[in-house]
Specification:
Layout lengths: L3 H4 L8 E5 L2 H4 L12 H6 L17 H15 L3 E5 L2 H4 L9 H16 L3 E7 L5 H4 L9 H16 L5 E6 L1 H10 L12 H23 L3 E7 L3 E3 L4 H24 L5 H6 L8 H7 L5 E5 L4 E5 L7 E3 L17 H14 L4 E6 L17 H19 L4 E7 L18 E4 L4 E4 L1 H11 L6
Parallel strand pairs: 1-2, 1-11, 2-3, 3-4, 4-5, 5-7, 6-8, 7-10, 10-11
Antiparallel strand pairs: 8-9, 12-13
Bound molecules: the ligand N=[N+]=NCCCCNC(=O)[C@@H]1[C@H]2[C@H](O)[C@@H](O)[C@H](O)[C@@H](CO)[C@@H]12.
The site of the ligand N=[N+]=NCCCCNC(=O)[C@@H]1[C@H]2[C@H](O)[C@@H](O)[C@H](O)[C@@H](CO)[C@@H]12 has 15 residues, from loops.
């Protein structure tokens, strides 16, 4: 809990307050103006994959409503906006031919943001791999490192300078754990052998894209990971070992590769014969100097030893805990603990909280257009307090992007979960700022002093 030192702590001048979204979750029109399909276009049109049979065909119609959405960001006083570009809008076949209409969409969006005093943070890959590349093996094909670098280079040359903060990958752990091990996310594979290969090629692609940026880019580039602190359910040795495995698998695996040039030793134990031995030159590619890292934080896991694949660990629900609509425990102390852990392990690299937020059941729009979402306000207040504590503890936190600006397509959960600080009526596409949007707007305007 805050003490006198942390309570008096403040957010540094110039702290970058913003909101985050992702292309496939908000844009809609996935095949408009020459765009090619992504694995999510295919996955969503595969019966049974998405709750209620929802798809990203319309989503928040941001592909047509981008100008009004930037105006909404301006009204909220946001300083920054983190979004992702759709690889298959830019390169419909994933490599080769550039679809100028796709590039023009993002160029117009960036210009509109800048004209409204909002800094763009651009994520190259937020899970929507071109289907044409998946047909060629996708993340299982070592050539994807060059395919990804080529895609990044097209965008760097078109937008660098207007875009000054670039992100290569969003959450490689979710891409592999969801898309290749458990199959809940596109491309829906379930293979302990493919998972480490996808991980390694994602990280090789990250390194290749950073290398390509260094050749032409003049600003900053980083990696975004989701991290989730693991706490033992008991003081037993088995639970401690389960925590060690879970922490290595989710929290250390990707940052160790990118920043230390190696995987944690636990991964060999976890995957056994499915864990390849990689050549050193791969790690020389993966480990590139980064200007910042992005941390996406949602929850913690109280962890016990249990029969499960691949971790032999299970999450223990907390009887007195508060949980969100996605079943994630609200635990802001976990953010403090993990930010300090990252500072100590990786040397206090400049860090942005690139996603933090929660899905709660929101009441219908009340008279006068008000949407009361006190649980989301409480969630944001507690987690912003945690960030202030971490800053007081010496962590170099440079900014915060709330997830999400808009209610949107929550991947396999479709539109059943709402993370937005702005409500979207998917029937009319009307946007209605929730109480949390007005709360956050005051936080931004006061640089956190109103917290
Ligand atoms: N148990 N448990 N663990 C929680 C694990 C969280 C993993 N999911 C994410 O971080 C995704 C991230 C994604 O970028 C965004 O596109 C998603 O919409 C949000 C909300 O889901 C989050």
């Amino acid at each position: 809990m805050p003490n006198s030192a942390t309570a008096s702590a403040r957010f540094p001048d110039g702290f970058l307050w913003g909101a985050a979204t992702a292309a496939h979750q908000i844009e809609g029109s996935p095949l408009a103006d020459g765009a090619g399909p992504s694995i999510w276009t295919r996955f969503a049109h595969t019966p049974g994959m998405i709750v209620n049979g929802d798809t990203g065909d319309i989503a928040c119609d941001h592909y047509h409503r981008w100008k009004q959405d930037v105006a909404l960001m301006r009204e909220l006083g946001l300083k920054a906006y983190r979004f992702s570009t759709s690889w298959s809008r830019i390169l419909p076949e994933g490599t080769g031919r550039v679809n100028q209409a796709g590039l023009d969409f993002y160029s117009r969006l960036v210009d509109e943001l800048l004209e409204n005093g909002i800094e763009p943070l651009l994520t190259l890959y937020h899970w929507d791999l071109p289907a044409a590349l998946d047909d060629r093996g996708g993340w299982l094909n070592r050539d994807i490192a060059q395919w990804f670098a080529e895609y990044g280079d097209v965008l760097y040359r078109a937008l660098d300078g207007r875009v000054k903060k670039w992100v290569t990958l969003n959450e490689p752990w979710v891409v592999t754990d969801g898309g290749y091990l458990h199959g809940a996310l596109a491309p829906g594979h379930r293979s302990k052998y493919e998972t480490p290969i996808a991980t390694h090629n994602l990280m090789r692609a990250h390194g290749a894209a950073v290398q390509a940026y260094r050749a032409t880019g003049k600003h900053e580039i980083g990696l975004v990971v989701n991290i989730e602190p693991k706490y033992p359910a008991s003081d037993s040795a088995d639970d401690a070992a389960a925590v060690k495995r879970a922490h290595a698998y989710m929290n250390e695996q990707y940052l160790d590769a990118a920043l230390l040039g190696r995987y944690p030793p636990e991964l060999k134990d976890i995957f056994g014969d499915a864990w390849p031995q990689w050549p050193q030159e791969d790690f020389d590619l993966i480990r590139q100097k980064l200007d910042f890292i992005g941390i996406n934080y949602y929850t913690r896991s109280v962890t016990k030893a249990a029969q499960s694949y691949p971790l032999d660990a299970a999450v223990v629900k907390q009887p007195l805990g508060t949980y969100t609509e996605t079943g994630w425990e609200v635990f802001p102390q976990g953010l403090v603990d993990l930010l300090v852990w990252a500072k100590d392990r990786y040397g206090n690299i400049p860090t942005y909280i690139t996603e933090n937020g929660a899905a709660f059941f929101d009441p219908p729009v009340a008279e006068g257009g008000r949407i009361r979402d006190p649980l989301r306000i409480d969630y944001l207040q507690k987690h912003l307090g945690a960030i202030r504590q971490a800053i007081a503890a010496g962590c170099d936190i440079r900014g915060y992007m709330v997830w999400s600006l808009l209610d949107n397509m929550e991947w396999s959960l479709g539109y059943s979960k709402r993370f937005g600080i702005v409500h979207v009526n998917y029937g009319t596409q009307e946007r209605t700022p929730k109480d949390s949007a007005h709360y956050y707007s005051k936080i931004v305007a006061s640089n956190g002093a109103s917290l």
